[in-house]
Amino acid sequence: MITALFLLLFSLTSWSRPLVLVGHFDAFDKAPFNNSEKMAKLLLERVKDHPDFDLKLCALNTVFDKSTDQLEDCLKALPVTPHLILGLGESNCNFKIETMVRNFDKTFGPDNEGNERENTTILPGVDKAIGLNYPLAQMYCSLPEKDRSDIEVSNDAGTFVCNNLAFQFAHLYQDLTFGFIHVPSHHCRNLAKKDEVTLRNLETMITAAVKTTTFERLATRKKEIEALRESSKSDQCLSEFYKRTKGVDEKSFWPFLAPKNNRSYTSHP
Prior knowledge:
By secondary structure, the chain is α/β, with parallel strands linked by helices. It contains 9 helices and 8 strands. It has one domain (18-218, 250-267): Aminopeptidase, CATH 3.40.630.20. Helix content is 37%, strand content 15%. The relative contact order is 0.19.
């Protein structure tokens, strides 16, 4: 009995700080590594004694549907509900923060188990787009102006495994704080410098997220975002964030309409 009480107290003490779960993907298409995995592991080392949160990692395969099951398994294995669940993937050469995900798969090459999707609905009977449920505006505004200017505020998480995972998870766990960020891809020039900034930004943004107590699911429609722009005029940074945010009903959302020579990013999660 004494041993059981000790273990219970030890468990509660161990998780006295907010817990953050970060999912990352494995290498894809014969790449030497996936930079989301590299960044996640370096971040874990960087924040191991962080005063504001504890970090746990979840390894994901670049495979449709399987990655969702793996993130669910990682979530269920935790002793407490995480304060934030953050998916990391790689896409283009920007630090790319996602505001929404959509109910659509389209591949320009197979996933790591050979699966391909051609204009496929992920979950029938569900909304075409879901705003992600994490305090992205506050996370964005926690960064210095220079770092903010280099960030891509994205309404397009692609049509591959990253979007598939994020859409399913955002739909299945609507009450959890869940978001997605694309880090610069492994093939980018000046990657070491980009990675340094990425790690700094991730630490700062996660710290802001666990300290934010009130926020709403991110808007997906142009009119909703315009209303947020109007209501945030008194806050320079929030106004900046919403000016850079686009809705699902604005141009350039669907990547498969882009010229073929601009599709290289779809080969990554």
